[in-house]
Amino acid sequence: MKIVGKVFEAKQADGQMDDAHVGQRLREIRKLAGFTQEQLAERLKIGQASLSRVEKRRDILVSTLRDYLGALGATLRIDAKFDDASALVANVHEADFQFDPIDDNQLLLPIIGDGRLSTRRDVVFSIKPDYCDKIVSGVKTVELRRRFPMSMPKGTTALIYATSPTRAMLGIAEIGEVHRRTPEEIWETFAERACIARKDFDSYFDGVEHGFAIELKRARRLRRALELQELRDRFNFEPPQSFLYATPKMREAIHYECPEVSH
After folding, report:
1. Which residue has the higher pLDDT, 113 or 62?
2. Phi-psi region of 45 (alpha: psi -120 to 50; beta: other; left: phi over 0)
3. Domains of the chain with CATH codes
4. How is residue 212 annotated by DSSP?
5. Contact 24/92 with Cβ under 8 angstroms?
6. What distance lies between CA 234 and its chain's CA centroid?
7. What is the pLDDT of residues 177-211, one digit of tens each?
């Protein structure tokens, strides 16, 4: 039996497994994979005695753990799990993460291993109400950000959240090109489409060498606005300072309840 392409995740033990340590778990995995110590030691090009010592250790280097599992045909992945998605995104705007498939209120931030993201991630933008109205009316077609991931795929859905005093999700658009340029280049190229005054632009980009201009396409109003209290009650949503990725539950609900409307 050979384990191929599997991912072993470290989880907090409970009950009778509390006294087990990493070495014991590795030994259990090796046996499940159908390898003897001698066979695995040969794959690792180490002596059987050395392998035996590894399986008796409570603390193991990440590199040793990766090599051990790799010799079994498995992949090591280590994630940092954050309970509060909004707090993370408010401070790490460019973090690449995915939602926990079991609990979509939690985030998995890949540290080591396969950090590929899910192919579908709607973005929630926090935007002042007057700018929101210009976006959904098609006047404002570029959104500006001090930080934004260049890897954002074209066609990603952008959900438009209007900040105080409106405090509601009221629009939807598609992300087109994402441009990373100096503030002056952004002003010269996108100022008119961003619908921003020069003094507000300079204040926003003060102190940064590069900013981001995000093209928005097919902007329209949601069939019904979702007020902040409803977003909190249903999706544990808290408005981001800049942007965040919508949870799968929020994404599905909005696409189901507020389908596309004509311009």
Report:
1. 62
2. left
3. 6-76 (1.10.260.40), 79-112 (no CATH), 123-257 (2.30.130.30)
4. E
5. no
6. 20
7. 999 999 999 999 999 999 999 999 999 999 999 99
| Helices marked H in 80-227 | 85-91, 129-136, 183-194, 198-204
Contact predicate 30/59, CB 8 Å: no
pLDDT band at 241 (very low <50, low <70, confident <90, very high): confident
The span from the CA of 35 to the CA of 29, in Å, is 9
- Whether 136 and 171 have beta carbons less than 8 Å apart is answered as yes
List, in order, residues 6 or more apart from 207 with CB less than 8 Å away. Answer: none
How many residues comprise the chain?
Answer: 263
- What six digits make up the tokens of 28? 């259990």
Which residue pairs, CB below 8 angstroms and at least 24 apart, start in 202-209? 204/144, 204/146, 205/144, 205/146, 208/146, 208/183, 209/182
- Taking only the tens place, the pLDDT of each residue in 95-150 is 444 444 444 444 555 555 555 444 457 899 999 999 999 999 999 999 999 999 88
DSSP structural state of residue 231: H
> Model's pTM, two decimal places?
0.58
